[in-house]
Amino acid sequence: MGLEKALSERGLLIEEALRERKPRGESASVQAAVDWSLLAPAKRLRPILALLVTETLQGDPKSVLPAGCAVEMVHTASLILDDLPCMDDAALRRGKPACHVEFGVETAILAAFALQNRAFEILAEGWAFGPSASTRVLLAQELAKAIGPSGMIAGQAADLETTGVAIDLSTLEFIHSRKTGALFIASAAIGALVAGAAEKDRAAIVAYAKNLGLAFQVVDDLIDAVSKAEEAGKDVGKDLKKTTFVSFAGVEGARQLARELVGASQEALAGFGPRARALLDLASYVIARRR
């Protein structure tokens, strides 16, 4: 199966599952904000990664689908919060006005927490043909760690603290291995856990996802530097006050770094042979994307 077809088919599965499992509450304004952000056209790379990992490890992708929805809800919540005026102050997201622009800051924050809380509720509830309760505890731990004070929060805090300050490559990698990379790692680890992977296989999958997540961010910096907003589907040029992989290494240097990271991610899958074809292709897709 070609990657384009694989992405399309799994994307449709995820879209249907998100509509079925999305947060539902009594506030019409919060519900509208949730739907605006969660159901907007998106790549769904993180839940797709979870599904592809489970398939690579010979598990049933439908057994991880609700957990993939939980990952996407947490990711969408992080985008809502990241776009706020007190954070990255972005006005455009997924080709539409950012949630706080459309609904106001207060409602956007409530929508973000509704999405995050629903994600962990899904993992607690369980689902038909899904993993055991003990495995779901591990899934929740992976997701919580990814967005917690040693994960996404640490990355965002360091990003805010170093705005307007020159930083070295080590600090730049620290920021984005947590702000962006941690959720890629969690997505892959969740897919491996649901498939019941051996520790060796899980470690290889995590190494793949770690390099893939950093490559994704390098490409994000390139998009911010050289693309137009209508092509990217979000604000561009907003990182001018920050050290990025592009400002640090230049456009060609950043492109080379992205290629090296993708190569490292693909090398981590060597032990899986032909089974890893879709994951290898996904890494190639990440480096070629334009939004």
Succession of helices and strands = HHHHEEHHHHHHHHHH
Q: How would you describe the shape?
A: globular
**Percent range for β-strand residues:** under 5%
Low-confidence stretches: none
Helix and strand topology:
Elements: H1 3-21, H2 28-38, H3 45-56, H4 65-82, E1 92-93, E2 96-97, H5 99-103, H6 105-125, H7 133-147, H8 152-161, H9 169-179, H10 181-194, H11 199-226, H12 229-232, H13 245-267, H14 277-288
Antiparallel strand pairs: 1-2
Helix pairs in contact: 1-4, 2-6, 3-4, 3-10, 3-14, 4-6, 4-10, 7-10, 8-9, 10-11, 11-13, 11-14, 13-14
Describe the structure.
The protein is mostly helical and 291 residues long. It has one domain: Farnesyl Diphosphate Synthase. Helices cover 70% and strands 1% of the residues. It has 14 helices and 2 strands. The chain has helices at 3-21, 28-38, 45-56, 65-82, 99-103, 105-125, 133-147, 152-161, 169-179, 181-194, 199-226, 229-232, 245-267, 277-288; strands at residues 92-93, 96-97. The protein has a two-stranded antiparallel ribbon. The longest helix is centred in the C-terminal third of the chain and has 28 residues, at 199-226. It is globular, with a radius of gyration of 18 Å. The protein starts with a helix and ends with a helix. 46% of the residues are buried. The model has no long low-confidence stretch (mean pLDDT 92).
